[in-house]
Amino acid sequence: MELAPHLHRLGTDIVACYLFDSPEGITLIDAGLPGHWSDLQQELDALGKTPADIRGLILTHGDSDHIGFAERLRRDHGVPVYVHSADAHRARTGEKPKAPAGPMRPAPALGFFWYGLRKNGLRTEYLKEVTEISDGDVLALPGSPVIIAMPGHSPGSVAVHLPSVDAVCVGDALTTRHVLTGRTGPQPAPFTDHPAQALASLDRLTHLTTSWILPGHGAPWHGTPTDLTATIRTAAH
Ligand SMILES: [Zn+2]
């Protein structure tokens, strides 16, 4: 699905990842669940591209619903996978502290788990190799993505700013659709290691003037990070 010229979304409001396309090649942000591999193939076909055009995959964090096809892309197509050093272990092993899920409603929660099953969420392949990144890095990939550390959801959560398309991918630093309650609108994400730290990290976005904020779960949000942060702080109280 094309969000804007050069900017595409794979997946749905339940689980999404993003593709930046340019004449220099493709940058991916997140890898969804293993079954999103076929969504990636469809999007590449529609663009007249192949996995050989993908220059790199940046993970917003190391959780299993974001690393889906990453190892397959790395192993079979030689695509480097970037993750913040504080989440590299999680991306390699899946080990993480147990974070409280918080509120839940049966139908949306079942919808999330069912979607996960259909997309082979139980067959996570962890990364054998990653390239570690840190706050402030500007990666030598199409779109010159800028890494903004957003600790809280996980220690190595990052936002990925793509200045040329006026967008920032935020992973689970926030959500616009709570996967377990189905509630829509900007709000804190569930399964967050340190909720207070995640809220504080939102301030790290407010210097951006981007008009697209792209979460790992929920609809793309059109507006400035400053407005979004204010909405989330209200929702969190
Ligand atoms: Zn997630």
TrEMBL record:
Pfam hit, one: Lactamase_B
Q: Source organism's superkingdom? A: Bacteria
Xref: InterPro entries: Metallo-B-lactamas, NDM-1-like, RibonucZ/Hydroxyglut_hydro
What range(s) does the Metallo-beta-lactamase domain occupy? 14-217
- Output the SMART domains linked to this UniProt entry: Lactamase_B
Q: List, alphabetically, the PANTHER family matched.
A: METALLO-BETA-LACTAMASE DOMAIN-CONTAINING
Which protein are we looking at?
MBL fold metallo-hydrolase
Provenance organism: Kitasatospora sp. CMC57
